[in-house]
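User: Hey, my collaborator sent me this sequence without any context and asked if I could get a structure. I don't really work with proteins. Can you help?
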Amino acid sequence: MNELIIFLAQSLVEDTEAVTVTESETEEAIVYELHVAPDDMGRVIGKHGKIAKAIRAIVKSASFKMPKKVIVEIK
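Assistant: No problem. I've predicted the 3D structure and written it out in structure-token form, which is a compact way to encode the shape of the chain:
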């Protein structure tokens, strides 16, 4: 799942080297934190959060067989 999130983010940003994903797990969910350069934050979020919602939808559909809920946070 990390590779998918990194691929999606690197396709959107200018500074591809700054894209990182960290994974943490709670009892209910697996949380992926996407970190991008501050200048690229707007590109990843998009107008009214449309791109961020699309990234979350793609990750959610890719993880439907996983036993836990998957959450993507953009930082």
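In plain terms: The first helix runs from residue 2 to 12. You can pass these tokens on to your collaborator as they are.
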